[in-house]
Amino acid sequence: MTPTRRRRMFIVGAIVLGVGVAVTLGLRGMQESMLYFLSPTEVLAGAATDGRDFRLGGMVRKGSVERRAGDMEMSFDVTDYENTITVRYTGVTPALFGEGQGVIAIGTMEDNNIFRAKEVLAKHDENYMPVEVADMLAQQGKAEDEAPASTAN
Amino acid sequence: MKIWNWIHKLASPPHFYRMAEFLVPWFMWPAVLLILIGAYGGLVLAPPDYMQGQGFRMIYFHVPSAYLSMLVYVVMAVAAAIGLIWRIKLAHAVAASSASIGASFTVLALVTGMVGGKPMWGAYWVWDARLTSELVLLFLYLGYITLRAAFDEISKADRASGVLAVVGVVNIPIIHFSVVWWNTLHQGPTITKLDNPSITGDMLWPLLAMILGYTLFFVAVLAIRVSGEVLTRESRSRWVGEILRAPGQIGVK
After folding, report:
1. Euclidean distance between CA atoms A16 and B163, whole angstroms
2. Which residue ranges make up each domain of chain B?
3. Quick one: which of A111, A116, A127, B49 could link to B56 by a disulfide (CB 3.0–4.6 Å)?
4. Residues of B in contact with A134 (CB under 8 A)
5. Are A71 and A134 within one domain?
6. How far apart are the first and last CA of chain B?
7. What is the model's pLDDT at position B251?
8. Which tens digit of pLDDT belongs to each residue from A77-104?
9. CB-CB neighbours of B141 under 10 Å
10. Of residues A37, A94, A130, nearest to B200 (C-beta)
């Protein structure tokens, strides 16, 4: 390799390295705003105390979904298996919303430590399998951590 | 150094032009076949997902598009770096030809993702790290194309846009690891991880066929586009004149 080419290679390498370091530092600096949602533990530790809207994310605790008859008022518990926050919401939930499923609620904390959601999004995991496989896993008792019970339609 | 001679011969525009003409069908037809097989396997043969039902089939178009949007960028950045360091014109031609293909795959990935996002998540778009970094990728492609268009002189366009392509490669690991580094609405990786794939075999093979088909399609389209780019760049050289005057060309009597 000629000295000119080596110099050019060095420059290209330095540019990528420099930009890479700058972006890494930048992203680390704004780590908190890169998070799309906060877990119940983070919220209870005081991560969202300024009264502004934020996103609360976690799992819908099994057996916690209550729908009031007559209107669209509902409540459910969001848990990260360490802490739990009760969410109240009025409106339509996405198709994938369900007990034991991932959820992201957008809203604010009320004074009584209840989260008032304006919008509810469903977060699904990276597992794909046929209904029969999911049922089989559920029967084997792995349902709690790997395959939530079948809700396919 | 025999290998260097070989590379230089391969990188000479007339040699590349003839080789591309010969190779394109060998990539294009397998690509079409694989995409047809993959689409049939994904849309018809694969069983519905236990959770997302029939709606999960969008992954057979979304995942290959998203994968290609990143692969094409890496190809573009590596070609641009080779062009900058060794001043190989063919490398710059490859980078310049990749941009609009990559931008198309990025748009496909974003649109299929939005179509799937509404019924699954409840929203077409959210500003989480995965979706945002993929949108940044689209802007990098568009910025690259715009920057090239701003120069009259092709060698200046090559160098300026080449630096942009090289700088933007930083975004590729951010897209890929965004779902691991930060909590996002988008789910984590299903097949591109060290662990076993989180998808059963009957759902996985059509996806792999689609990914391979898309990749071969990209190679074929890239070869066609680079051929055109090379003809434009070398339009004053003798070998282009010979090709254009050859019997069978449009406008040749």
Report:
1. 9
2. 26-245
3. B49
4. 50-51
5. yes
6. 45
7. 54
8. 999 999 999 999 998 888 888 888 899 9
9. 26
10. A130
Interior CA angle at B44 toward B42 and B45, to 5°?
75
Co-location of A92 and A18 in the same domain = no
Tell whether A3 and A41 lie within a shared domain. Answer: no
Min Cα distance A9 → chain B (Å) is: 6
Determine the structural domain holding residue A1 and report its residue range. Answer: 1-34
Closest CB from B55, B85, B166 relative to A16: B166
For residue A80, the SS3 value is: coil
Q: Where are the beta strands (DSSP E) in chain A?
A: 54-60, 66-67, 73-79, 84-90, 102-109, 114-123
Interface of A with B in 71-110 (CB under 8 A): 93-97, 101, 104
- The residue-averaged pLDDT of A40-68 equals 87
CA nearest to B118 within chain A: A94
Confidence of residue B109 (pLDDT cuts 50, 70, 90): very high
Residue B197: predicted pLDDT:
83
Helix ranges, chain B (H): 2-10, 13-40, 59-86, 89-121, 129-149, 154-168, 171-181, 201-233, 238-245
Q: Provide CATH code, domain B26-245.
A: 1.20.120
Could you report the predicted ipTM of this complex, rounded to two decimals?
A: 0.80
Q: Are residues A75 and A125 in the same domain?
A: yes
CA distance B28 to chain A (A): 30
